[in-house]
């Protein structure tokens, strides 16, 4: 059936975000009792018990619209990060803040610089606003800041740097990133996406929040979806110059972050003991997986996030499919720009050990004693 009304021409050049099969579908398809989901970079340890307790208490005012200004959450995040309340813009995930930045600052023909393999929503949102994405190839999985600097033109409006980068998990070093920030013209907005920053343990990672006082064109993105374990509630935010924040508020939906999400985020923020525990467990799991990949002779990107991209030497779709049959859901690197890789979320100790056994079996490295 061909509809008479047509969508915008730009939509013919955009593919929808590819979602993997649900765990229920995979269980049914392969006759599995359970699925170990290691594909979406979620916090495998869940969220703070304080959040669970708060949600179980219920909320008798769900008939009311949420606080469009996120007043309590704004106050708590402001105090926790040491930034002004007016510098904060909250969104339905940090994805929405990316959309707001594009909507507010990209016009027809404008350019936004980004890595060629990075979070895809940068490109999508810029493209929808009529802008052009200037994609600079990664170097060994890391942002090529020299190449990005050389790509700046009089049409450049935004620069996106995902640090740690998704999907490679790599970071840009302190001196290199600071030098880059200092060199970018002040009329260009630099967006540093730090969705995974709480997982970083490398001391060569730049603490960017103090730079907000020096660089008015700096925007820092954070989220409650990753280490805080609130991916299902969708809460993200940007920290930026108050004038920039004011422009984003003009294009933001009024009630974009629901009441339960706001309340849960406040509770999650108050439990930094849980966050520290998750970071420690993640670092141990990351070290274990890297050691196992080294043992198996598999190259991988040095990650500072809660996932690792590893080169299997075979078609990523094939390996991901075979792992799914054995109850392990990972992300193939085919659509991520590295066709012979898979990206695996770091799980619990039990998850990680079971995953390695399954990977060995799928790669033909150890076919004895494995219970599929």
Task: Describe what this molecule looks like in 3D.
The modification N6-(pyridoxal phosphate)lysine is found at residue 226. The strands form three sheets. Strands 2-8-7-6-5-3-4 form a seven-stranded mixed sheet, sandwiched between helices. The protein folds into two domains: 18-46 and 273-362, Aspartate Aminotransferase, domain 1 (Alpha-Beta Complex), CATH 3.90.1150.10; 49-270, 3-Layer(aba) Sandwich (Aspartate Aminotransferase, domain 2), CATH 3.40.640. The chain has helices at residues 23-30, 49-57, 71-81, 94-105, 121-128, 145-150, 174-183, 242-251, 259-269, 272-295, 316-325, 349-362, and strands spanning 36-37, 88-91, 111-115, 132-136, 156-162, 189-193, 218-223, 236-240, 307-311, 328-329, 331-332, 341-345. It has 372 residues and is an alpha/beta fold.
Short description:
The chain is an alpha/beta fold.
């Amino acid at each position: 059936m061909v509809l008479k009304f047509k969508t915008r021409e730009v939509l013919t050049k955009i593919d929808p975000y590819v979602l993997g099969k649900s765990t229920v579908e995979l269980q049914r398809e392969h006759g599995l009792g359970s699925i170990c989901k290691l594909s979406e970079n979620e916090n495998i340890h869940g969220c703070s018990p304080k959040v669970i307790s708060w949600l179980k208490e219920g909320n008798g005012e769900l008939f009311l619209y949420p606080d469009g200004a996120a007043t309590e959450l704004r106050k708590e995040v402001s105090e926790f990060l040491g930034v002004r309340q007016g510098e904060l813009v909250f969104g339905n995930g940090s994805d929405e803040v990316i959309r707001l930045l594009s909507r507010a600052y990209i016009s027809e023909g404008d350019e936004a610089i980004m890595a060629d393999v990075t979070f895809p929503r940068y490109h999508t949102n810029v493209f929808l606003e009529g802008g052009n994405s200037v994609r600079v190839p990664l170097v060994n999985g890391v942002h090529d800041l020299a190449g990005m600097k050389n790509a700046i033109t009089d049409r450049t409006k935004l620069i996106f740097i995902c640090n740690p980068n998704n999907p490679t998990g790599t970071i840009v070093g302190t001196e290199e990133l600071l030098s880059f920030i200092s060199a970018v013209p002040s009329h260009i907005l630099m967006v540093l996406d730090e969705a995974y920053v709480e997982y970083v343990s490398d001391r060569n990672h730049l603490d960017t929040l103090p730079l907000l006082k020096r660089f008015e064109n700096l925007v820092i993105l954070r989220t409650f979806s990753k280490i805080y374990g609130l991916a299902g509630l969708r809460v993200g935010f940007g920290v930026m110059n108050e004038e920039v924040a004011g422009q984003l508020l003009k294009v933001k939906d009024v009630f974009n972050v629901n009441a339960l999400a706001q309340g849960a985020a406040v509770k999650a923020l108050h439990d930094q003991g849980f966050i520290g525990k998750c970071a420690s467990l993640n670092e141990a799991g990351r070290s274990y997986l890297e050691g196992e990949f080294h043992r198996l002779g598999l190259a991988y990107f040095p990650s500072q996030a809660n996932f690792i991209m590893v080169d299997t030497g075979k078609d990523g779709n094939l390996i991901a499919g075979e792992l799914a049959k054995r109850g392990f859901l990972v992300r193939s690197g085919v659509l991520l720009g590295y066709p012979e890789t898979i990206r695996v979320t770091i799980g619990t100790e039990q998850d990680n050990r079971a995953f390695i056994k399954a990977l060995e079996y799928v790669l033909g490295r150890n076919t004895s004693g494995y219970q599929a």
